[in-house]
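Methods — Computational structure assignment.
A single polypeptide chain was analysed. Its primary sequence is given first, followed by the predicted tertiary structure written as structure tokens.
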Amino acid sequence: MADNPFHVVDVFAQEKYAGNQLAVVHDADSLTDEEMQDITRETKFSEATFIESSTPRDGGYDVRIFDPAEEIPFAGHPTLGTAFVIREFVRDDRPDELILNLDVGRIPVHIERDDEGTERFWMRQIPPTFEKTIDHSLATRVLSLDEGAIDETHPVQLVSTGLPTLVVPLRSLDAVRRARTNHEPYYEELIEPYGNLNILLFAPETEAENDLHARVFADCAGVPEDPATGSSNGCLAAYLVANDYFDADQIDVRVEQGYEMGRPSLLHLRASESTDGIEMQVGGRVIPVAEGRLL
């Protein structure tokens, strides 16, 4: 195996050892698909990414993303975390805009600074597709909840911006905390007919001064729970606008995730609807944690 450098970063974190962990491996064109999959499983993280070359192609960097089960076309925190590593450790000029060439397409990432100088990385996801709505009773069976836990004023809906997510609106923070994947209906009634997908459940009650509290389950990908999920939150942003959750065609909200795992995370969501459709952006901080080389 080649002597590849790598970095570990925490994405959507406010400090080290929070948010979602990511391993980013450089010069990955020297690695086989099997080696990338093995490295990902070795990290025990939700995903790992592989930068195939330090030289851009058509203005963007070729990047591959793996979760513990397989290669995937898109994921949120890997996109932002990889952009951070390219900017800080590959490029010499630290640009405020980058493009990642992913399997789902070209994903632009830009950096914004607040009044205190804190940098947040933002990605614009591909336009959403709104797929099937799911019966509320199936959602409650899958999540081990009673039917009264679901907010019946909004649908349980499959949304995708490259990685499908089932968005489940719940009434309370207590319901979000109590949710557990019930494996029999999860695999037999959800995954078998609809394919591999994430489940994002959310409620308007929060732990901190944020707008929504969310959890994400992805058992089918070998990730029983994810501490911060940019792709699914992009789906959530589109869902919130499409279903008038905040009675607005434009949103700018803060979503907390990962509290139940001891890895509190903060995701910033923006979305707006026009005659051209819904455009979403997801942003957050990226904090470096470690670096090394593969042996």
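Note: Helices lie at 33-43, 76-90, 136-143, 173-178, 183-194, 230-242.
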